[in-house]
Amino acid sequence: MKAEAVESGEASTIIATPKRGLNRGISIADLILRGFAAIGTFGSAMTMGTTNETLAIFTQPLIRARYNDLPSLTFFVIANSIVCGYLVLSIPLSIFHFIRSEAKITRIILVIFDTAMVELLTAAASAATVVVYLAHKGNASANWLAICQQFDNFCERISGSLLGSFASITMITLTIFASAVALSWN
């Protein structure tokens, strides 16, 4: 009987080791994705926030295009800044999950806040995408002209800012999936 207890104890240790290794791997992926998402949101906020172009036309005074002329782009900068701040503040908790991969409650809290942040970032990026689309294409029905022929640097910067934000949305979504997988393994 004693031999059976030792064998079953050994078997449970062998099975538990790959689970812990998988949780550590997921924690490392979570940390890396969080870092890259923070860089992406910071870059998007900085690029959009510093976008400014002035156009001199002979018949009119100087015409200026700035991000804060449009409320959707202002919302985009604020939302990216909030999400970047959250991601930077959540990195220590992600490091804690690497050290103690069995923690469940903090991982659940992160999943909840990550979901809220990805919703905020998606809303902001979607609102800014509409403005960028109108800047590139215009709308003939509403008599809105495309401004990107005149303000090409402005349009390139706001388009690039959107790419960084959508990449960050993808990374945060992958972080949520990774955390959900880690929770299901615990």
From TrEMBL:
<comment type="similarity">
    <text>Belongs to the Casparian strip membrane proteins (CASP) family.</text>
</comment>
<dbReference type="InterPro" id="IPR006702">
    <property type="entry name" value="CASP_dom"/>
</dbReference>
<protein>
    <recommendedName>
        <fullName>CASP-like protein</fullName>
    </recommendedName>
</protein>
<keyword id="KW-0812">Transmembrane</keyword>
<dbReference type="Pfam" id="PF04535">
    <property type="entry name" value="CASP_dom"/>
</dbReference>
<comment type="subunit">
    <text>Homodimer and heterodimers.</text>
</comment>
<dbReference type="GO" id="GO:0005886">
    <property type="term" value="C:plasma membrane"/>
</dbReference>
<feature type="transmembrane region" description="Helical">
    <location>
        <begin position="31"/>
        <end position="50"/>
    </location>
</feature>
<feature type="transmembrane region" description="Helical">
    <location>
        <begin position="162"/>
        <end position="185"/>
    </location>
</feature>
<keyword id="KW-1133">Transmembrane helix</keyword>
<dbReference type="InterPro" id="IPR006459">
    <property type="entry name" value="CASP/CASPL"/>
</dbReference>
<dbReference type="InterPro" id="IPR044173">
    <property type="entry name" value="CASPL"/>
</dbReference>
<feature type="transmembrane region" description="Helical">
    <location>
        <begin position="108"/>
        <end position="135"/>
    </location>
</feature>
<feature type="transmembrane region" description="Helical">
    <location>
        <begin position="70"/>
        <end position="96"/>
    </location>
</feature>
<feature type="domain" description="Casparian strip membrane protein">
    <location>
        <begin position="24"/>
        <end position="169"/>
    </location>
</feature>
<keyword id="KW-0472">Membrane</keyword>
<keyword id="KW-1003">Cell membrane</keyword>
